[in-house]
Amino acid sequence: MKQFVVQYPERVAATALAPRRIRFEFPEKIPLVWTPNYPEMSAAANSVSLLMPHVEPYVMASVRAVLDQLPQEQRIDAAAFIAQEAQHQRQHRTFNASITTQVRGLSRVERWMHRSYSWLSRTRSTRFNLAFAAGFETVAFALARWTEAHLRPLFDGADEQITTLFLWHLAEEVEHKCVAYDAYEEVDGSRLRYLTAAVTSIVILSIYTLISTVLNLKAQGRILSPVAWWRLLLCSVSLAWEVLPDVAASAMPGHHPSDFTDPIALSTWLSQYDAETASLPLWWTGAPSSDLSGL
Ligand SMILES: [Fe+2]
Ligand SMILES: [Fe+2]
């Protein structure tokens, strides 16, 4: 599979954004269901994870393509942003390698994902690709905000290593929420292009997440479970209620991502990263509970 190549400028250290190289200790065979209280959540999260080694390199390459057009300070932040995204997709690639061996058909879907983002990268303009990166980052931030608002129902009783992987990723999405947006404002700034690209990003994410979730549920033996689909529907409506207004607000003239309130728990937790040991305290997922009413 052809990969995007991203080179990092040398001055990454001169920014507040730091790439965190965390050593996750996953078992060789990662359990398909790692949220035993809420198995559908594992299916959906595994599906989002599958997208990351394909969409994030596209986002990185899109920002990388305009580095030379950015003022010095923004260029440094953009390089650090690329370094963070490189870590995200690398960790998800490791995680996905175990999941795809357990779910029939997932490798084929992964190839479709790769082709989709490669096609966009090859055929769209530099400005559209950058708008896509900015829009995708707004979606990622909205996902982080929604997740923090529903931590207990989503992760109570879940595997702590895997929960830490997903929450670390989301916490860094909050941390670098402005970078792609600022780069886009500097290079283009068209609101119409931004909205078109953001909607494209949401549509592709939704379609592939749905296909992969179906395959994950099939592998779990729950493809025909009305409860699973009902919970997924509730979850999707709740998430859309966060993402769509955030994307609409971000497309308004005069908006800046700093206008959005950050989810505080994720940011506070991320500040406990220890660079010397490359470790972050595991997210404590508490005791299993069957209460999903918070969604
Ligand atoms: Fe990321
Ligand atoms: Fe990001």
Provide an overview of this structure.
The protein has helices at 39-64, 72-100, 106-123, 126-149, 151-155, 160-175, 179-187, 191-220, 226-250, 264-270. With 295 residues, the protein is mainly alpha-helical. It has one domain: Orthogonal Bundle (Ribonucleotide Reductase, subunit A), CATH 1.10.620. Helix content is 64%, strand content 0%. The longest helix is centred in the C-terminal third of the chain and has 30 residues, at 191-220.
List keywords for this structure.
globular, UCP07580, Ribonucleotide Reductase, subunit A, 295 residues, 64% helix, membrane, mainly alpha
The level 1 CATH classification is: Mainly Alpha
Q: Which ranges are low-confidence, i.e. pLDDT below 50, for 5 or more consecutive residues?
A: 1-13
Which cofactor or ligand species appear?
Answer: fe (ii) ion
Assign the CATH architecture: Orthogonal Bundle
CATH topology: Ribonucleotide Reductase, subunit A
SS-derived structural category = mainly alpha
- According to DSSP, the number of beta strands is 0
Tell the overall outline.
globular
